[in-house]
Amino acid sequence: MSLIEKLNWRYATKKFDATKKLSKEQLDTLLHAIRLAPSSYGLQSYKVLVVENPEIREQLKAAAYGQPQLTDASQVIVFATETNIDEASVHKYVDNIVATRNIDRSMVEGYEQTMVGTVNRLPDEQKIGWSTKQTYIALGVLLTAAAEIGVDACPMEGFEAGKFDEILGLKEKGLAATVIATIGFRAHDDHYSHLAKVRKPAEELFIHI
Ligand SMILES: Cc1cc2nc3c(=O)[nH]c(=O)nc-3n(C[C@H](O)[C@H](O)[C@H](O)COP(=O)(O)O)c2cc1C
């Protein structure tokens, strides 16, 4: 299948086959893809929780308006925004650049100062908004990677974020649940799997200049 065929194959899965689980290799591939997602400055200002515990998932389902994907999918992936991005986060990231690329810190000092300027300049609310946007890029990469390897997924915003934070103990970790994806395998009788894709016509969506 071509990439376009795979993107047509994927859909927001409403009904998962609860008996089917991802192999370790499939899960590892998807987590690796999330790790490779681009982010502003490369700061990756979020964490990603992989929730498998059945009792926790029952609680999450109740906080997600009873949507069955929360318990029937193979895993629940929660993208949680870091709410306290600060100078220390930037320094830690620069430490990683220096170590990974084996370069002298002086080579990235200017970049470091630019990032520090950004995190110090933005009011908390805007900073969290900025970080939140990054999680959606990671979500998009996950959805595409899942389609690529034949794993079904449902991106989901239909949940009470405050309740998710409580259930998962996110607030005390400086995190806030932003968006989730349930991943697994479609049930053979999920009638959504047979519906035609509804998208704007290209001439309405794209503006060529
Ligand atoms: C950010 C986001 C949040 C969504 N939230 C939900 C949700 O809570 N429950 C659900 O069943 N589908 C949810 N969807 C799925 C969309 O309804 C679906 O992607 C859209 O209708 C396009 O259909 P397709 O993905 O099947 O092609 C969400 C999608 C996105 C991108």
> Can you tell me the overall shape?
globular
CATH fold descriptor = NADH Oxidase
- Share of helical residues: 40-55%
Question: How many DSSP E strands?
Answer: 4
As laid out across the biggest beta sheet, the strand order is 1-2-4-3
Mean pLDDT: 97
The small-molecule ligands in this entry are: flavin mononucleotide
Major sheet characteristics? 4 strands, antiparallel
* Computed CA radius of gyration, to the nearest angstrom: 19 Å
Give the class-level CATH name: Alpha Beta
Q: Secondary-structure element sequence?
A: HHEHHEHHHEHEH
TL;DR of this structure?
The protein is built from nine helices and four strands. The chain is an alpha+beta fold. Strands 1-2-4-3 form a four-stranded antiparallel beta sheet, with helices on both faces.
Keywords:
alpha+beta; NADH Oxidase; 4 strands; binds flavin mononucleotide
Ordered list of secondary-structure elements with their pairings:
Blueprint: H1 3-9, H2 24-35, E1 46-51, H3 54-62, H4 69-72, E2 75-82, H5 87-101, H6 109-121, H7 124-148, E3 152-156, H8 161-168, E4 175-184, H9 202-205
Antiparallel strand pairs: 1-2, 2-4, 3-4
Helix pairs in contact: 2-7, 5-6
The protein binds flavin mononucleotide (FMN).
Structure write-up:
It is a single chain. The chain has 209 residues and is α+β, with helices and mostly antiparallel strands. It has a single domain (3-85, 123-205), classed as NADH Oxidase, CATH 3.40.109. 46% of the residues lie in helices and 14% in strands. The protein is built from nine helices and four strands, in the order ααβααβαααβαβα. The structure holds flavin mononucleotide. The site of flavin mononucleotide (FMN) has 11 residues, from strand 3. Residues 11-12, 14, 67, 154-158, 179, 197 line the site of flavin mononucleotide.
